[in-house]
Structure formats: C-alpha cells, structure tokens
Amino acid sequence: MQGSLEPVMLQPSALRPDGQPMTLGVLGGGQLGRMFVHAAQTLGFRTAVLDPDPDSPAGRVSHLHLQAAYTDEAALAEMAQACDAVTTEFENVPAQALRWLGVRRPVAPSADAVATCQHRALEKAHFTACGVPCVPYARLESAADLEDLLGKDGDALFPAILKTSTLGYDGKGQVSVARRADLAAAWASLREVPCLLEKRVALAAELSVVVARDAAGRVVHLPVQQNLHRDGILAVTVVPAPDVPADVATQAVQRASTVAESLGYVGVLCVEFFLLEDGTLLANEMAPRPHNSGHCSIDACDLSQFDLQVRAMAGLPLVMPRQHSPTVMLNLLGDLWWAGDAALPVTPPWSEVLALPGTHLHLYGKTEPRRGRKMGHLTVTAATPAQARAVALQAAAVLGLPAF
Ligand code: ADP
Ligand code: MG
After folding, report:
1. Best label site of 146, 188, 258, 374, fewest CB within 10 Å?
2. Which ligand is nearest to the CA of 92?
3. Against a cut of 0.90, is the pTM above it?
C-alpha cells in the first residue's frame, strides 16, 4: 500500500476553509528542517516541526514546534490536524509515522520510498532493479551469511567496507575490512547487526545529484555536484563539478531521475555516486530529502533544493533550477570551535571570512559545538569557478581547514 494521498495544489498564504493558514509540516528539526522552514515561510506558508529536542534548529524558527517522539500518536494527530502537507528531513524517521500521516494528509516522500532509502540492502536492490549499477556487495545478516562469505572462492569483495544496513550516516556504522580473515571480527565490532559488505573501490571523484519529482511525474534537477569527504563526512562541494566529464554528468542525472521515477517518488531525492578512474559511474546511496551537498543551491541557483521540496510537497509547479554562479561550499563542523588549546570553545573568525567577496555564512543555531557536528556551512559564489575556488581556499585558510 502506497499509503500517501496525492499532493494537492496548496496556494501559498491562502486560508483553509476552517480559516486556518496553510501549514507545511516536517518531521525532524535539524538543519535540513530549518532550511526547509525558511523556504516554506518565504512563500508565505506557516510551518510545523515535529522533533523531541526542545532546542532543535528547525523548531526554533518554526511557527509551531511539537516536542514529541516520532511515534507519539497524539503528536502525529496534532501534526495531521495542523498541517496541509507533511515531509521529512531525515530518513530515519520511523516509516510507520509517515504511513500513519500518509493516510490523513498528503505526505511526500511516501513512507514506502523512505523505507527503501532507510535500508542499504533495499536501496542497492532498488538501484539494481532499475538498471543503475552500484558497488559489488553482499548482505551479512546471519551466521549462515558469514559462513557463506568466508567460504566463498576468491576475495572479490576485499578489501571491503562493512556498513550497518540501517541508521548509518556521516561514515558512522562503518568499518574497514582489509581481508576476508578480518570479517568475523569486523562484524562482531558492529555487534552483529544486519550489515552490508561492500567492495572498497578506488574513487576518481564523488558526485551527487539532487532531483525533484512531482505527483504528475515531472522531474527537475540541480546541476551535478562534486563532493570531497574527510573521515566519511562531507567536507567540500564544488559546482560545476570540475572532474566530471559532461557525458558522465548527463548519465548521473539520467540515473538519479530513473531512480526517482521507479520509486514513484514525490519530493526531493539525492543520489550519491562514485566515479572510478575508468569512467565507470556507480550509485552509492540515496537520501529521500535535500542533501548536505545541495546546500550551495541556496546561494548559487535561482531555486534551492529546499524551494523544490516545498513546491513538490505543496503541488506547486516544478521548474528547472538555473545555476547563476559557480560555487564552492565548505562544511563547518564543531571541530572549528576547538582549534586552539582553549578549554572552552572559541567562535571561529567569522568577520574575516565575511570580509572575503561572495561568502555566504549559514549557521544552524546549534549551541553546542561538538567535534564532527554539523554547525553550519559556508557557500562561496563568484563569477568564475576559478574565482570561487580561490576565495574558498582563502576562507579555508582563515578557518584552519585543509586545502582541497
Ligand atoms: P554515509 O551514510 O555515512 O554517508 P556512505 O556509504 O556514503 O555512508 O559512505 C561515506 C563515504 O565513505 C563515501 O562518501 C565515500 O567517501 C566512502 N565510501 C563509502 N563506501 C565506499 C566504497 N565502497 N568504496 C570506497 N569508498 C567508500
Ligand atoms: Mg553518503
């Protein structure tokens, strides 16, 4: 059962028959929810956020913040009552919450699509089913699977990475497995939860494509984004992608669109790809929502990924975004606050960064700068890719971030 009502066209800032203002809801109150709220409010919608954290970045800026668990039926009922359409800002929201809401209000993306993205094995099976190649992998979910993998001839999957099938993000829930002999210990270190064993491939580049699809099947996309990760966390995104040939970029957009179409997807979907030295393009994973790598669209495109999310869920027209400025985005992690030896966090030198031309600083309003925590991002826009890169390198130097 799809379990989602088709989005209807919601007129921005109109009133409902009951006199209430049109309201868009989001499950999850992190930075993605916050930027969604900003985009929705720009169009005159009211917003509602469901997140148990009283200090969540999106809850802070939303008209309504319901502080409750995602499985709390009373809170879900309140969401359904308050909202004219609902979306999510992360994939680990329980699919049952989306399903429950989806029979009462238009929900985009659907619970089924989110459930596919929640599970690495389902996600990869979906890529394969729609003819999109991905990294060689095997499921490791039982002692029998382990035995099977240990007994197989050859070491085709090694060196490998073992990833938990669910709840992994930013490189968490992953361990390197150099040889087959290390597999049992690696699985034990992940407490033998269901996992996926993936061949480690040599990456020439990483890229991502953000697509948006509406209920009528129209698909639009942002330009291909090239991504650099450090320690499994996105560090830098560059658009246009400097190391991605035009035919590969076209292929990536086509494949991301195919994935969305075959899911019957409504909303914003991001597909991450690996590009190998020989030009092979492999899908890595997908996210049923806007993506960290798409943040630069806020400042570099005439429609951001959050604008697309709002339009798709509200049934408003999707038009193809146009990038008006070359851009480089730097992720700003909590580590930046702990650069020196100080016992207390030190605010990074934002004024020096903002003195550079074309810098757009986005801070998410998080008060506790923990290491590895996404605190904000800096987008640089410029007239040429070379200029954007030069300023981004200057900003990185000011902040003590490595060059790229
Ligand atoms: P997450 O959900 O944490 O983003 P990913 O599967 O995207 O998980 O892995 C994070 C990063 O680790 C990737 O962006 C890539 O840099 C690296 N990585 C993951 N899988 C592989 C692989 N099979 N081969 C090479 N590098 C990989
Ligand atoms: Mg990833």
Report:
1. 188
2. 1
3. yes
Q: What is the mean pLDDT of residues 275-291?
A: 97
Per-residue model confidence as pLDDT tens digits over 149-202: 998 665 789 999 999 999 988 888 999 999 999 999 999 999 999 999 999 999
pLDDT digits (tens, 9 = 90+) for 342-389: 889 999 999 999 999 999 999 999 999 999 999 999 999 999 999 999
Expressed in angstroms and rounded, the spacing between residue 373 Cα and the centre of ligand 2 is 15
Does ligand 1 come within 6 angstroms of the Cβ of 112?
Answer: no
- Domain 23-107 CATH (choose: 3.40.50.20, 3.40.50.300, 3.30.428.10, 3.40.50.10770): 3.40.50.20
Q: Is 284 in the pocket of ligand 1 (CB under 6 A)?
A: yes
CB 212 within 8 A of CB 220: yes
206 lines ligand 1 (CB under 6 A): yes
Residues paired with residue 195 on neighbouring β-strands, in sequence order: 140, 164
The answer to whether the CB of 91 is under 6 A from ligand 1 is: no
What are the contacts of 181-189 at 24+ separation with CB within 8 A? 183/140, 183/146, 183/149, 183/150, 184/146, 184/150, 186/162, 187/140, 187/146, 187/162
Of the listed ranges 94-103, 263-272, 316-325, the least confidently predicted one is 94-103
